[in-house]
Design goal:
It is a single chain. The protein is α/β, with parallel strands linked by helices and 443 residues long. It has 3 domains: 3-88, NAD(P)-binding Rossmann-like Domain (Rossmann fold), CATH 3.40.50.720; 97-294, Mur-like, catalytic domain (UDP-N-acetylmuramoyl-L-alanine:D-glutamate ligase), CATH 3.40.1190.10; 304-441, Protein-Tyrosine Phosphatase, Chain A, CATH 3.90.190. The protein has helices at 11-22, 37-41, 53-56, 74-81, 89-95, 113-126, 157-161, 181-184, 187-194, 210-218, 266-280, 286-294, 323-330, 350-356, 370-380, 396-407, 429-441; strands at 3-7, 26-31, 45-48, 62-65, 85-88, 103-108, 133-135, 150-154, 170-173, 202-206, 222-226, 236-239, 242-245, 253-257, 304-309, 312-316, 336-340, 360-365, 386-388, 413-416. The strands form 4 sheets. It has a 6-stranded parallel beta sheet, with helices on both faces. α1 (11-22) links the parallel β1 and β2. The longest helix is centred in the middle third of the chain and has 15 residues, at 266-280. The radius of gyration is 23 Å and the shape is globular. The N and C termini lie far apart (61 Å).
Length: 443
């Protein structure tokens, strides 16, 4: 048996520690703030605070870290200097797989991961398979070692960075754009971490994204592309209003129609094609793919209509936590009052503002990095009405929505697409989206 140090005592960390403890390993858990009470109840040693890494690592064989722990963290650096292996919960789950473990289908990318993963789970369910959407969403992977045939696994760049043997049967990279650059230290490291999703030998990638297409061309093993255009042989794509499959030799086969896809938007058609391509690698029929897409219920806070008030539509895309994600919804509507701001995470907002400026009827800005957006709007839309909301208390979103409503006219869309993370003001993007919806309903 080995000695493990688990860094992080929340959902994934607690699940990892308990799984290792059940297998008889010696486990210590460290967290700077608090720990799941189940750990102490199980007799697992818990350390609260930030003690000297040298003391924590004494006698430790392997370290399991929360995906949010960056590569330059003192504990990580101390472990690597001692040749102690460091990885995260998905990698641990992969290593703990037993003979009855399910097939993994992996999903990563800058945006669209959760939508694609849950679409894939809906397709697999329609095919009669025992499945779930797991990984960066849902229950921890270490708790999903049996009871499923195939699982749809969302994996972030951080989770993939902290992996070395994890190799899903097939994996997709949906798109690549600047995100988490502060964590990875640069775009190249961020992009390369994503390619770990292709270790299993079947690489699915977005042919409409030049960066992904280039990486896909270098991938080893079988390669499958998806595109919003007519697909070349070996790929899936769109012909007029039909989603079609040309993966296997022969005539193209219909997978569904654009009208089947929810939420609306070209980016969600691309997500559906990615999910369909992954499903085909485990033999799911075309009929089951179409049934799964037609029955799919979108996740909340993703380009979701809250309601219409006096002819103005209010749309919640709080999940748009970076400019690339925000662009997808901002290009889905003709005339927009844009609600934006939060934590930009070191990403340049200027290209997005330049692209969408002609669609904007106004903007309301909030959050810690709102001034960067305000400056970009001044450069690219100098006559645009802009309201800067400095408040950060519980009433801030009400002030934001009232300001947006005052700018909007019938036929406009008031769109919460922040292009930034939420934790400067909210517990999560979901909390931010709920605050927006509540403020809209109070109009």
């Amino acid at each position: 048996m080995s000695s493990f140090l688990v860094a992080g005592a929340r959902v994934a960390g607690a699940a990892s520690a308990l799984a290792l403890h059940r297998l008889g390993h010696e486990v210590t858990v460290v967290d700077r703030a608090s720990a799941d009470p189940r750990l102490a109840e199980a007799g697992i040693r818990v350390v609260i605070g930030e003690p000297d890494p040298r003391e924590l690592l004494s006698g430790v064989d392997e370290v399991v870290v929360s995906p949010g722990v960056p590569p330059d963290h003192p504990l990580v650096q101390a472990a690597l200097q001692r040749d102690i292996e460091v990885y995260s919960e998905p990698e641990l789950a992969w290593r703990l797989r037993g003979p009855d473990a399910p097939i993994w289908l992996g999903v990563t990318g800058t945006n669209g991961k959760t939508t694609t993963t849950t679409m894939l789970a809906a397709i697999l369910k329609a095919a009669g398979m025992r499945t779930a959407a797991l990984g960066n969403i849902g229950e921890p992977l270490v708790d999903a070692q049996a009871g499923y045939d195939v699982i749809a696994v969302e994996l972030s760049s951080q989770q993939l960075h902290w992996s070395s043997t994890l190799a899903p049967h097939a994996g997709v990279i949906l798109n690549l754009a600047d995100d988490h650059l502060d964590w990875h230290g640069g775009f190249d490291d961020y992009a390369m971490s994503k390619t770990a999703i292709w270790r299993g030998g079947i690489a699915v990638g977005n042919l409409d994204d030049p960066l992904v297409e280039s990486l896909l061309g270098k991938a080893e093993g079988r390669r499958i592309g998806f595109t919003l255009d007519v697909p070349p042989p070996g790929c899936v794509g769109v012909v007029e209003e039909l989603l079609v499959d040309r993966i296997e030799p022969g005539d193209a086969r219909e997978l569904g129609t654009i009208a089947d896809i929810k939420p609306v938007g070209a980016h969600n058609v691309a997500n559906a094609l990615a999910a369909a391509a992954l499903a085909r690698t485990v033999g799911v029929s075309h009929d089951a793919i179409r049934a799964g897409l037609q029955g799919y219920v979108p996740e909340p806070h993703r380009n979701a209509l809250v309601t219409a008030v006096r002819g103005v539509s209010y749309v919640d895309d709080s999940k748009a936590t970076n400019p690339h994600a925000a662009q997808a919804s901002l290009t889905s509507y003709e005339r927009i009052v844009w609600i934006a701001g939060g934590q930009l995470k070191g990403v340049d907002i200027d290209p997005l503002v330049q692209r969408v400026a002609p669609r904007l009827a106004g903007a309301v800005l909030l959050g810690v990095d709102r001034h960067e957006i305000k400056e970009a709007l001044a450069r690219h839309a100098p006559s645009l009405p802009v309201v800067d909301v400095a408040a950060t208390d519980d009433g801030a979103m009400g002030e934001v929505v009232r300001a947006a409503a005052a700018m909007a006219r019938p036929g406009d869309t008031v769109l919460l697409a922040p292009a930034a993370a939420s934790r400067d003001m909210y517990e999560s993007y979901a909390h931010r989206g709920k605050a927006f919806a509540q403020a809209v309903h109070r109009l």
